[in-house]
């Protein structure tokens, strides 16, 4: 697993999860809304705000051919691709200002380019990384161009088969770029939780020796928390100021409060995972006072035998270790022993 360095953030096996708020179409055609969304993402605990860089003409054709009509049972069924992307794209002239706002807020900002012209445009803005959207994983020439810029490449695998992943990875490596992350993604909007398959997060990391993570379209915190437990080092969620403003992606985007709750849940999950360590903390060591040990449970006269009737393993833990129970049975008491005394070796004859 190779480290990714995005701006001043190092993503590796020991780093906190890098949490990305995806702006997508949630600007709703207003730069003021876009700016406020960036600021809200910072308040919600995001590490990064991600944009999408395309125009309707760079991502598809203005055609009414049935091929270009959405009919796959999505939120956008009945629309033509060009019409959808014309209303949802982020104007390129907004990018520089939004990136400056992000910088001022202390957020990392980069984008998903969808064609060579958008890559070259983003290069003029000095983006620190690139994201390959799920549906672009098959565009090998685009991936080669992006990888050739020498910056980290984060690839969503939403519609990918094994061959697609291998081809994309090989494309990056051919360009001398091994700063790669793979994100498990379910390309449904919203995605059913029973199709999340979070075991894939661990498999992607182990199989391809890369940083892995999650690009999530499910509702709620459950999948990001499970992803964290499975080793995700990047989590991306769509972010919106308020779903009531509507828009193409509103229904599966998180509001500020929801996103903040998710961030908190992920951070708690990270804390809960901890490290492999069999040493006890001081508090845990004190807790051993309540474990079991050997105690006198009936008065025993000097010279009497210790038996199961007068010695037992009980709480608390100030007596002999219970592992010695069978050894002490049948031995004689050196002195009178009272019920409730913690049994010690010096109290009995060997």
Description:
With 350 residues, the protein is an alpha/beta fold. It has two domains: 4-54 and 89-273, Aldolase class I (TIM Barrel), CATH 3.20.20.70; 282-347, Antifreeze-like/N-acetylneuraminic acid synthase C-terminal domain (Type Iii Antifreeze Protein Isoform Hplc 12, Alpha-Beta Complex). 32% of the residues lie in helices and 16% in strands. Strands 5-4-3-10-9-8-7-6 form an eight-stranded parallel β-sheet. The protein has a two-stranded antiparallel sheet with strand order 1-2. Strand 9 (211-216), helix 9 (222-229) and strand 10 form a beta-alpha-beta unit.
Percent of residues in helices comes to: 25-40%
Order of helices and strands: EEEHEHHHEHEHEHEHEHEHHEEH
The strands making up the biggest β-sheet line up spatially as: 5-4-3-10-9-8-7-6
Main beta-sheet strand count, sense and barrel state = 8 strands, parallel
User: Which structural class best describes the helix and strand composition?
Assistant: alpha/beta
CATH fold-level assignment of the largest domain: TIM Barrel
Number-wise, the strands total 12
- Overall shape: it is elongated
What oligomeric arrangement do these chains adopt?
A: single chain
Low-confidence segments: none
What integer is the average pLDDT? 94
CATH superfamily label of the largest domain: Aldolase class I
What is Rg?
30 Å
Strand content: 15-25%
How many distinct domains? 2
